[in-house]
Design brief:
- 2 copies of one chain form a homodimer.
- Chain A is of the alpha+beta class.
- The first copy, chain A, folds into 3 domains: 316 residues, 3-Layer(aba) Sandwich (Beta-lactamase), CATH 3.40.710; 137 residues, STAS domain (Transcription Regulator spoIIAA, 2-Layer Sandwich), CATH 3.30.750.24; 146 residues, Jelly Rolls.
- Chain A contains 20 helices and 23 strands.
- In chain A, the strands form 6 sheets. In chain A, strands 1-4-3-9-8-7 form a 6-stranded antiparallel sheet. Chain A has a 5-stranded mixed sheet with strand order 12-20-19-22-17, with no helix packed on it.
């Protein structure tokens, strides 16, 4: 058995793949299917024009393209053949884009006719062809393509195909001439359509365009990319270019679904269940919406005119890979990735002990829901229900949009209504991490672009403030005895220690500690707040680890570890700090062992406290 | 305008919902749609039997049931009417279950006929009705239902319906009698089928069953539950009972999709795009696979025999909620929830400093991928590709199945192949958190039921062991100078401290520290390991916070904080510890301030170190 070469093409957009991607499991699977039918040479070549009957009957190629633009190919997946009827959905899409949905739907029906593809019967009641996948309908589609001249119109058709496949295409002139010379039945259909007003303009020009579009040369890989483009809402997954306006994709897929496979449409939907189109050139393209595109080429046709091996390959892929549209799937998926409360996970703001303890008590009234994936109707319904079930037990309900890929307008409406319901109960809905173009239209008090941590920080402020705590700018400068760590000392001890603590001021934005400098002192914040930041390789902006506020200390590791500072610290507002020099403190400690001991214990206790909180957060986040 | 009552029924399985769930956003949306068509009284009642013409033409109800069994209803959603043709897919499903797919497909085709529902034409070539949604096909379906008597057969049909809707159902005997007395055309169809061998047995019995199944009384809510049952792979989402074997669901949905809406099948698929079935009783059920079921009742029919308002309601729901099967969706969803390496996130094992530092260097060869949602072909394809892209940079690749809802067999095959590919490169694939019934069939060295943390712990051991570290049972008892914290002291200092450290032994499973007891001592582990555990309210099994091994200390917070112990500690193996009493240590410290200071600093440093690691983990996990 001759083994076909597996061809793997990397997406242009993705990172350079490792060389051995050629051995991916899906390549092996395609190879298996290829091997199964390599010698299955049933069916016969199309022979209504001599060019089609001349094709090598053994040619056979399969390609799959993923939603992120990865191309699998096996066999003759780069062999060119004429696209034929597979041009119909593409040109139908172009007609929709050129003339608008309403006009096109008036001109071409969407009912499967039950008649052969070249039928000369029409939907008499509505004076139009039954659907755009029979020749009669496809000719009307082509007649609707705009352009200032025949050449211009064809260039627009060709450009559309090129956007769909992501490469330059050409026309087989011999096939075009043959089709044109022998297409008497299509000519009859077109003239009948002209006669009954279904098409307008120069009928010979329309016919020539139609014959020409059928003679465009494509490969199985091209068909898979076309299919993946349709699967991807009209954007070519390999090139990233839009080939069809998003609003027309569903209609194109719908007519492929009901009428794409000639007289096998019902059986195809039953057993394969993917919108598809075949052509007498031997190609089939099939679409798994949102997921992937399939292209197959084998020129031997079955009795209804579909590629014999193409249908079998699609059957095997559908059954084996379980990609039938109506296969059970995703029933339990939820848009809520995880949920936590403000007493379980804290913002990056490190607060005074009194505030922090208060949040242990009252932080639970903040509930954060991290959303993921797509937020369409079913997911949004479940979210609204979940939040309303929790409504009694909280006051602030944060929906974190950061990890959502797509949000439907109906989902936003449900979220908006949810906001209203919560408001009527004196509760508040908050949106976080919203990065979609349009305003969410939800009446919320915080900026929707804030990430969940930022929202949490502000809500902690609100919750604390409502409970009578002073917050942020309201906080008076802290006296030494009120500093969290120092507060364990007696009045006399504090008086002695104070002499060791020279004050320093920093303007907002000034650097207080530089990563890598020796850790030689501890800082007590008496006014304002500081940001702890870590530089990230290859990024200009450093990462904010935490914000520490007045009353707390930073750089305390200096007391335990020598070595370099592990982060930068910047003044996040105008700041006043008291500086405790490590060497001075150690020698001070020799005379005042009690003070030394008490302070070391207080710093240790604060570390222990933060470690316990951090471990709790890890437990929540790891869920 | 009379406002309809919104009825919300809680799922029996779910927790008691809050009372104000009646005001959920989706209820409001259904109410809007209801209001829009409340006075839309076009169409006419079915009148081929007098009973149908007597129904109150104003009756109108809408219901939606979710994949988790939540029932929305508006208007007359609990009003009973005869199911009529909506019985066809249900009985087709029963026939598939009774006779097997192959036999049923031989007896009834799956091609839309293009003929009216009561057509007396057949697929002559295959000597069978075109599909099970026309009367000719439905009668064959009924003829295939098994049973020892007519009564038994009908009971089986009725029971199937009852499992689909989750309540007892009855038959309208007047409708049944009327249909039977006037169903001459159906009788003719059945006798023709008998004549040509399409059905066997007692034709009058089959016909009577058929008329009777059409006269079963259901509500819009029942239809929505039936549809949700189909959406949910054949399991009733409200009761949890199976109504149809999973393997036949797709086939039932397929024929509904192509042939369910009489002559409007093509237009319905184009504009609404949900598998559906209507009946002349005025009902429509529509299915969004995996997601939800819709039931509508309004007895006024349009010209092709579908409920006039029913079609409009479904159109509005499909367009507004964007639930058309071919609407673009989920294109970017990924099964990989997050990924981290063994140097970023550690297992719960707290290791000696030397091992821990080693993992900072070599832990990166362990790569964990947390999977989520469903693992079908497209998701599995992406996973295999991602892992192969990372293959060069790691040695152990852990797929965490814990958060997966469903795994397809093709996905397991791809994962299996991935394991083979990695093995061929001297790398290893590991499955974690596998809780599906069947063996994954993947050749892995660790038990697949272990959770990701357990797997990580074992892989850390393997990685350390390969790098020449002694692990677990191999570790010799630790001498005092080799204890991580003590190692900062000089020989003389250690000799002095040793006198303070009486050894104690614990048998595997013994409790060493009890949560709530006063924290009065620190323990150094010289042999074995201990588990830190926190009791969880309402659970017999406590939660393991961490496992600490020989060389490390525990209970160190005693040195900084007084107060009660915050967790239990148990011997995870036979254990030997050295105990440092806090009070003794403090008084010792008065004479040996240097030792005291050095030890306090070492403990503080170890806390600082763990805090830094914990914060890094939080950053990784919060992604």
């Amino acid at each position: 058995m001759k083994r076909a070469t597996v061809q793997i093409t990397a997406p242009t957009a993705a990172a350079k793949p490792a060389a051995d991607l050629a051995a991916l499991p899906v390549s092996a699977l395609l190879q298996e299917i290829y091997d199964r039918y390599e010698n299955h040479l049933e069916g016969k070549l199309a022979d209504y024009i001599p060019e089609l009957a001349k094709v090598d009957r053994k040619k056979f190629g399969i390609s799959i393209v993923t939603a992120d633009g990865f191309v699998y190919g096996v066999g003759d997946s780069e062999f060119e053949f004429s696209v034929q009827s597979i041009s119909k959905p593409i040109v139908y899409g172009l007609a929709l884009a050129d003339r608008g949905r309403e006009r096109v739907l008036r001109k071409i029906g969407v009912e499967p006719s039950g008649d052969p593809f070249n039928s000369i019967t029409f939907d008499e009641k509505n004076n139009r062809p039954f659907n755009p996948m029979v020749n009669a309908g496809a000719i009307v589609s082509t007649s609707l393509v705009k352009g200032v001249s025949a050449a211009d119109r064809f260039q627009r058709i060709l450009n559309t195909f090129e956007r769909f496949v992501g490469r330059k295409l050409s026309v087989d002139e011999n096939i075009h001439k043959s089709e044109s010379a022998t297409g008497h039945r299509n000519r009859a259909i077109a003239y009948l359509e002209l006669n009954s007003g279904m098409i307008e303009g120069n009928v010979e020009e329309h016919l020539d365009l139609y014959f020409r579009q059928c003679a465009i040369l494509v490969t199985a890989r091209d068909l898979a990319v076309m299919a993946a483009t349709l699967a991807n809402g009209g954007i070519n997954t390999v090139t990233g270019e839009r080939a069809l306006p998003a609003e027309h994709v569903r209609d194109v897929l719908s007519v492929m679904n009901t009428c794409g496979m000639y007289d096998y449409a019902g059986g195809w939907q039953f057993s394969i269940g993917l919108p598809a189109k075949s052509g007498v050139g031997g190609g089939i393209m099939a679409v798994l919406p949102g997921r992937l595109g399939i292209g197959v080429f084998s020129p031997l046709l079955d009795t209804v005119g579909n590629s014999e091996r193409g249908v079998r390959v699609c059957e095997d892929i559908s059954r084996y890979c379980r990609v039938h549209l109506l296969d059970y799937r995703a029933g339990n998926q939820t848009a809520i990735r995880r949920s936590y409360r403000g007493n379980e996970v804290r913002s990056k703001r490190i607060r005074r002990d009194s505030d922090s303890r208060a949040l242990d008590e009252i932080g639970g009234q903040i509930v954060v829901y991290e959303l993921q994936g797509d937020l369409a109707f079913p997911e949004a319904e479940a979210v609204t229900r979940r939040v309303m079930q929790d409504a009694e037990s909280g006051n602030f309900f944060v929906l974190d949009f950061e990890r959502l890929f797509r949000v439907d307008s109906v989902a936003l409406k449900l979220i908006r209504d949810l906001g209203g319901l919560l408001k009527a109960r004196g509760k508040e809905l908050v949106i976080a991490g919203y990065k979609f173009g349009l305003s969410p239209g939800v009446d919320v008090s915080l900026p929707v672009e804030l990430n969940a941590d930022g929202v949490l920080e502000r809500l902690e402020d609100i919750v604390l403030s409502r409970a009578g705590h002073s917050i942020g700018e309201e906080v008076e400068p802290i006296d030494i005895p009120d500093l969290d760590i120092v507060s364990v000392l007696s009045k006399e001890q504090i008086a002695k220690l104070s002499k060791l603590l020279p004050p320093r001021q920093f303007k907002k934005g000034e650097r207080i500690i530089r990563q890598g400098d020796p850790a030689d002192s501890l800082f007590f914040i008496t006014r304002g707040r500081v940001d702890v930041r870590v530089p990230i390789k290859g990024r200009a902006e450093s990462h904010r680890v935490s914000t520490i506020e007045a009353g707390k200390a930073f750089g305390e590791l200096a007391l335990f570890e020598g070595g370099p500072r592990t982060a930068d610290v910047f003044a996040a507002s105008d700041v006043e700090v008291l500086v405790l020099d490590k060497i001075e403190f150690v020698s001070f400690g020799k005379n005042e062992p009690e003070i030394y001991r008490a302070l070391m214990i207080a710093v240790g206790k604060s570390l222990a406290d933060r470690l316990r909180r951090a471990n709790q957060e890890i437990r929540v986040l790891a869920q």
